[in-house]
């Protein structure tokens, strides 16, 4: 039986980056604002949104980044 999907896993999936690459990118973005990605709550994700958006903007064109961030913002609302 696989472990339950965490919010971190959902953010990784919504990011549009490969899982291996997204894991480190999202973890670092969260860490920059004092959020532990692996155990974050929706409110902690909300606090990290700006940092995550900045990280994704390095790798994704603006239109893709915007649609990915829309999905990630929805996760922060629970």
Helix and strand arrangement:
Elements: H1 7-15, H2 19-31, H3 42-59, H4 62-76
Helix pairs in contact: 1-2, 1-4, 2-3, 3-4
Could you please describe the fold and organization of this structure?
The protein has 78 residues and is mostly helical. It is globular. The chain has one domain (7-76). α2 (19-31) crosses α3 and α3 (42-59) runs antiparallel to α4. The chain is built from four helices and no strands. The model has no long low-confidence stretch (mean pLDDT 95).
Biggest beta-sheet profile: none
Overall residue-averaged pLDDT value: 95
Secondary-structure content class: mainly alpha
The dominant shape is globular
Summed up:
By secondary structure, the chain is mainly alpha-helical.
Key attributes of the depicted protein:
78 residues; mainly alpha; 4 helices; 71% helix; globular
């Amino acid at each position: 039986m696989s472990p339950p999907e965490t919010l971190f896993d959902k953010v990784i999936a919504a990011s549009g980056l490969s899982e291996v690459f997204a894991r480190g990118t999202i973890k670092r973005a969260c860490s920059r604002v004092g959020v532990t990605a692996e155990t974050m709550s929706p409110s902690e994700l909300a606090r990290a949104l700006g940092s995550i958006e900045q990280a994704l903007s390095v790798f994704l064109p603006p239109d893709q980044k915007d649609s990915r961030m829309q999905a990630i913002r929805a996760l922060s609302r629970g």
